[in-house]
Write a structure and sequence with these properties.
Helix content is 37%, strand content 17%. It is of the alpha/beta class. A 7-stranded parallel beta sheet has the order 8-7-6-9-10-11-12, with helices on both faces. A 5-stranded parallel beta sheet has the order 2-1-3-4-5, with helices on both faces. It is elongated and about 60 Å long. Bound molecules: 3-phosphoglyceric acid. 3-phosphoglyceric acid binds next to loops.
Length: 307
């Protein structure tokens, strides 16, 4: 009987875990749960006899993959799969998948919330600004970017997007203006919402040059990954430009320094919470379970990311 292990350092909502268990057991598989672990070795040990693994941002290293002697599939319940060692998965013939779109709305709602939080001076006493009528730039028009654009329009913002991987027609159909370069996006927009994945091309790609192009009083909203920020460049830009603001859901390595040097201009959630809604947990968790059942029973490899 195939064993499905759910290993989440940051646990799913109880209702999502119950739903995953129901799907797994309903398919005739065994369900196992490892939650809130603090030692990565606990995952190495727990995966030893698992056929399938469901994780969130948990680091699925080469060691984890190799420890899973029976492992056939790993599903990242979420969008970004930079936490999976894809080369190790492929070398061992393990299929790696994500669940695109399943937690996007939750992340988009947080991005909008952070934009307003930033516009209102981090909810501290004093006069803030409104987002209506301001220009919003969507950096990468994927599942989350699309929702942020839609909600931004709902707030009366003028919405722009940069995404060389999405056709102009698709973006324009949503009433969003397309720009051809990131320079254009950042120099035009009062708010830029980041939705790029962290990979070799994007890591440290947002730094001094691009941030100093932003208009006066602009804010960068990051619900994507901290790795895409060049933190040294950001520090330099913020030191030169006393008007720039940063709100992020993924704490910068230099967060304490940013807050100390640039008080009132930098905010980070204590722990990534973009996908921390019951709805997102249920959507991504159940999709993961269904994808595993589909793969083990029918060989369905839809959403495989290590092709
Ligand atoms: C994602 O890539 O899906 C989001 O960043 C959510 O990640 P999480 O599962 O760690 O909350």
């Amino acid at each position: 009987m195939a064993k499905v292990l759910v290993a989440t350092e940051k646990p799913f909502a109880k209702v999502a875990v119950e739903g995953i268990k129901k799907i797994v057991e309903g398919a005739g598989f065994t369900f196992a749960l490892l939650e809130k672990y603090t030692d990565p070795n606990d995952l190495v040990k727990a995966v030893a006899d698992a056929d399938a693994l469901i994780v969130r941002s948990d680091k699925v290293t080469k060691e984890v993959i190799e420890a899973g002697k029976n492992l056939k599939i790993v599903v990242r319940a979420g969008a970004g799969y930079d936490n999976l060692d894809l080369a190790a998965c492929s070398a061992k013939g393990v299929v790696a998948m994500n669940t695109p779109g399943q937690n996007s709305n939750a992340v988009a709602e947080l991005a909008i919330g952070m934009m307003i939080f930033s516009a209102r001076g981090l909810f501290q006493p004093g006069t803030g600004t409104e987002i209506m009528g301001k220009k919003l730039g969507i950096h990468a028009y994927g599942n989350v970017g699309k929702y942020v654009a839609k909600y931004g329009k709902g707030f009366g913002m003028e919405v722009y997007a940069f995404d060389p991987f999405v056709s102009k027609d698709v973006i324009e159909k949503d009433g969003v203006k397309v720009v051809d370069t990131i320079e254009e996006l950042y120099s035009k927009c009062d708010y830029v919402s980041l939705h790029i994945p962290a990979n070799d091309k994007t890591k440290k790609s947002i730094g001094y040059d691009i941030l100093t192009k932003m208009p006066k009083g602009a804010a960068l909203i990051n619900t994507a990954r901290k790795e895409v920020i060049d933190e040294e460049g950001m520090k330099k830009a913020f030191a030169e430009r006393a008007d720039l603001k940063y709100a992020t859901d993924i704490m910068a390595d230099c967060h304490a320094e940013l807050v100390e040097k640039f008080p009132g201009r930098v905010f980070s959630t204590p722990k990534k919470m973009g996908a921390e809604t019951a709805e997102a947990n249920i959507n991504a968790g159940l999709a993961s379970a269904n994808q595993i059942v589909g793969f083990i029973k029918n060989g369905d490899k839809t959403f495989q990311v290590n092709k």
